[in-house]
Design brief:
Layout lengths: L2 H18 L9 H14 L3 H8 L4 E4 L3 H10 L7 E4 L27
Parallel strand pairs: 1-2
């Protein structure tokens, strides 16, 4: 291959890369992404994640709603020893986070051990 052919191929490659390169704009926040990851890990673990649990891995789930934790306790009973829930959000009858009347902050379950 001649030197000029290599230059042309290199130029075409650069042009193709510049045309196909796009800016990534996330559609969800990092917190929403993490909550979705928790949901998937909790209710639809991959085979590799199950193997990790069989080897003793424990996953710490932070900021999940109490209704999700209760559902996990009922439907994932065989995996409970591999779960730890912290910062569990207390919800109302509609499944929405309850707020403290005085501070307006989202209410979380007491984590005293």
């Amino acid at each position: 291959m001649k030197w000029t052919s290599r230059k042309m191929l290199f130029g075409l490659l650069i042009m193709a890369m510049s045309v196909t390169t796009t800016t990534y704009t996330p559609t969800v926040s990092a917190g929403e992404f993490l909550q979705q990851w928790f949901q998937n890990r909790l209710f639809s673990p991959t085979e590799q994640q199950r193997v990790q649990e069989e080897r003793g891995a424990v996953v710490i789930y932070d900021g999940m709603h109490d209704i999700e934790v209760n559902r996990a306790m009922e439907t994932q009973f065989d995996r409970i020893e591999h779960m730890m829930f912290i910062g569990t959000i207390i919800t109302n009858e509609k499944g929405e986070p309850k707020r403290d009347i005085e501070t307006g902050e989202i209410m979380k379950e007491d984590e005293d051990c």
